[in-house]
Amino acid sequence: MMKKLFLILLLGCFFISFSQNLPLSDNATVSVFTCGKGSQLYSTFGHTAIRIKDPNTTLDVVYNYGAFDFRTENFYLKFVKGDLQYFMNVTSYEEFIYEYQYESREVIEQTLDLTLDKKQLLFERLNASYSSEDKFYTYKFIDKNCTTMVVDKINETIGKPIIYKVDDTSISYRTVLYPYFENYFWNKLGINIIFGKRTDEKASQLFLPIELLHSLDQAKIDGKPLVLSTKKIASGKEDKQPFSFLNSIYSIALVLLLLVLTNKRWVFISHLFVLGLLGLFLSLVGLYSLHKEVLWNYNVLLFNPLFLLFPFLNWNWTKKIIFLSSVFLVVYVLIMITKPHLFLMIPFILSNAFMLLKLYRKKLLPSVK
After folding, report:
1. Kind and range of the H or E element at 33?
2. Which three-class secondary structure state does DSSP give residue 368?
3. Is 62 helix (H, G, I), strand (E, B) or coil?
4. What global pTM score does this model have?
5. Which residues of 133-226 form beta strands (DSSP E)?
6. In the chain, which residues have pLDDT < 50?
7. Is the dihedral of CA 135, 118, 58, 66 positive or negative?
8. How many other C-beta atoms can be found within 10 angstroms of the C-beta atom of residue 260?
9. Strand 59-67 and strand 107-112: pairing?
10. Helix/strand/coil for 346
11. pLDDT one-digit tens code per residue, 18-62
12. Kind and range of the H or E run holding 14
């Protein structure tokens, strides 16, 4: 396996060194691939890549800005912090398409109407980036990803920002992302818990592959459409999952209902303590991470770090914490009224409210002397 990877790397380096000054012919084409979503979390939103083909020289390669290395030291810490380095990868057309055909993911190709000079310039810039430190970039979910890198590279080559977002900018990023998790409840829940205020802003940034596809369809250069033709290279299967109780809101609602019905002090304490740990994690991530999407996370009002104090306080202090937590819960509900993920959080809101009320009225937490 290592020999194969080394051979691929060696061939890639040879190709780049050879192609740096390779002139494209009049028959060369430049196109953008928009790839459908995959089953893995990192592929949920699809993918964007650039293809350059020249039949006169048998050149047919795909430039892909979405590569990352799981073997990176402290990979998960770097990903959470927001300083994980992504990089450009170059593969043959056949190798690139095979992966998407194997995974039954759709690939749509939009061929661009560029002059030969612009094609050559883009080709040389992509190769120069690949053979230098420019191939690396710090991934940002909204601001810098495989799609934004392609947009920037094409706009820079053309010399003006003719590609810009044409999809609805009056809705929030969170609303834009919500449909992508239609059949993946736990992913939807996790993403909406960890994402903060940034994702509730108006979605003005072009950052999703499907948005780029729509924008390219509307883009014009010198008064003419930028896209010459559009065709489907690979077909994707419909992403319809059979209903699963475990992969639905009903599973978490049932668990919380059972916890509530126990009406046991230690159960309430344990549950709220776990929620407090989650709230503490969200707070610390907001301080640690460079990802703007996790900053100012109002979900800490629901998963309240103050819950961590319940096992260690006397009754007078417990009453104050319960009252303060209840106020925070009301504030949270007011914030959530207009949010698309309100329905997801209702089981937590109701169970928290019930437990806090019970703890206050029945004094299920004894005094600690």
Report:
1. strand 29-35
2. coil
3. strand
4. 0.87
5. 136-138, 220-221, 224-225
6. 1-11, 14, 16-19, 365, 367-369
7. positive
8. 18
9. unpaired
10. helix
11. 445 689 999 999 999 999 988 777 788 999 999 999 999 999 999
12. helix 2-19
